Amino acid sequence: MILPIVAYGDPVLRKKAKPITKDYPELDTLIENMRETMYGAYGVGLAAPQIGLPIRLFLVDTEPFSEDEEFSETEQEELKNFQRVFINAEILEEEGDEWAFNEGCLSIPDVREDVFRQPKITIKYQDENFKSHTEVFDGLIARVVQHEYDHIEGVLFTDKLSTLKKRLIKGKLTNISKGKIKVDYKMRFPAMKKKR
Ligand code: NI
């Protein structure tokens, strides 16, 4: 089932999400629905707060990046096969000199900006079977994981922009929060909620 994606301006996107246990109700269905929602919107990642749930769960699938010729063949192959469910993730370490990449977000349609992040991360998480992992990621995979991880910490990529850039996109963000935007996937806007 495709779930509506929560738009910029909804307070759920600003909450520090809570850990979950194996007993979380209908977790398998939730993950399946989130996966369908992410693919339906051509996203490379989706975090639970983006479908309205303040829990520490996000999915990443970098396959759509694998066609990008900006990357080497080895990188393309790696991007093609990278698919993970992250539960209760904690980033343990971020390393290296920050690099810029043009990011977007399903909750902030039509806004794309260069964001600086460190290239290498060590992350501890549980998978969909609640098996624990500690892994090191770098490059674009680390980037997508960092973006999704920010969502469970209540942080959006637009928070990381310069004061000037923030000022330049302010009007666009206000329009998104009011639902004044055309999107080709299902969204839920904060203003719509208030009208009920
Ligand atoms: Ni996002």
Structure explained in plain terms:
The protein has 196 residues and is an alpha+beta fold. It has one domain (5-188): Peptide Deformylase. Helices cover 29% and strands 25% of the residues. The two termini are 24 Å apart. The mean pLDDT is 95. Bound molecules: nickel (II) ion (NI). The site of nickel (II) ion has 5 residues, from α3. Nickel (II) ion is lined by residues 105-107, 147, 151.
Alpha-carbon distance between the two ends:
24 Å
Q: Unreliable stretches, pLDDT < 50, 5 or more residues?
A: none
DSSP helix count? 5
Question: What is the fold named in CATH at topology level?
Answer: Peptide Deformylase
Q: Which molecules are bound in this entry?
A: nickel (II) ion
Structural topology:
Layout: E1 5-6, H1 27-40, E2 45-47, E3 57-61, H2 73-80, E4 83-95, E5 99-103, E6 113-117, E7 120-126, E8 132-138, H3 139-152, H4 163-177, E9 187-188, H5 190-195
The structure holds nickel (II) ion.
Which terms would index this structure?
single chain, 196 residues, alpha+beta, Peptide Deformylase, 5-stranded antiparallel β-sheet, two-stranded parallel sheet, 9 strands, globular, binds nickel (II) ion
Compact summary:
The chain is of the alpha+beta class and 196 residues long. The protein has a single domain (5-188), classed as Peptide Deformylase (Alpha-Beta Complex), CATH 3.90.45.10.
